[in-house]
Design brief:
This protein is of the alpha/beta class. Helices cover 41% and strands 17% of the residues. It is built from 11 helices and 10 strands. The chain has a 5-stranded parallel β-sheet with strand order 3-6-9-2-10, sandwiched between helices. A 3-stranded mixed β-sheet has the order 1-5-4. It has a two-stranded antiparallel sheet with strand order 7-8. The N and C termini lie far apart (68 Å). Bound molecules: adenosine-5'-diphosphate. The site of adenosine-5'-diphosphate has 18 residues, from helix 2, helix 7 and helix 9.
Amino acid sequence: MLKKCSLSEELPVEEYLIEKEPYYVPVGNEIEIFMSAYRNKLPVNLKGPTGSGKTRFMEFMAYKLKRPLVTVACHEDLTATDLVGRFLIKGDSVEWSDGPLTKAVRHGAICYLDEVVEARKDTIVVIHPLTDDRRIMPIDKLGVILKAPSEFMLSISYNPGYQSVVKDLKQSTRQRFVAIDFDYPPAELEMKIVAHESGVNEEMARYLVDIGHRIRNFKQHGLEEGVSTRLLIYAGKLIKDGIDPKEACRIAMVRPITDNTDLQKSIDEIISTIM
Ligand code: ADP
């Protein structure tokens, strides 16, 4: 069998470029911090609950920096090979195919490993050499070491709320990244975002944000994670589409976050008093 390594094969980089400016409302000085990290070639960890704007922020930054954004949604079956690449049989030959991380390194893109803690432990081995001064990526199967160009950046996201002994980022990994905290935006900003993204008017957005805040308070009463900005937007979209507001809140903001019927009932009551 013939072995073909298409090492110089050009990635259609345009595919990963973000052409239109993503809508992003800054919550603090995260844009300046990210810019500075990029200039200093520091890897970044976006820490925060799901649906709090981390992915949107990455899209916005990639657009601002005019770099392609290669996003990998990490999951428990994701291996180092999935990130680096593999030989694939094509007809009677074997061709090398770059994984997303290799593609990003080769082309000076931004690689965003979403929920990195979900990935298998061996993925960490490939990430580490890219996060220190060396900024290299050894590809054992090809017998090459790629040097990341200065445009390359590695960023990860991490939800501290899901932390468990089995799924936690080791200090040896954490301490390779600067960390930017994300949380649900303050009420006034979240209202603006919900209105923009769902199309409901400001008054309705205010109701949704108010309910969201009250639901988040239930965290002290056994709720695992508060309702995300993403879910407030979902509720808004259903309302905009003609679904009864109370019903929309229940199915977009209450049912997704808890299976506990007592909690559901208590939250439903709050919704009824507001809507
Ligand atoms: P995460 O990656 O943290 O899970 P996302 O970035 O997917 O969350 O955010 C969910 C949705 O919330 C986005 O699609 C966007 O509509 C909205 N959103 C959250 N925060 C912001 C923000 N600061 N500016 C604009 N939109 C936001």
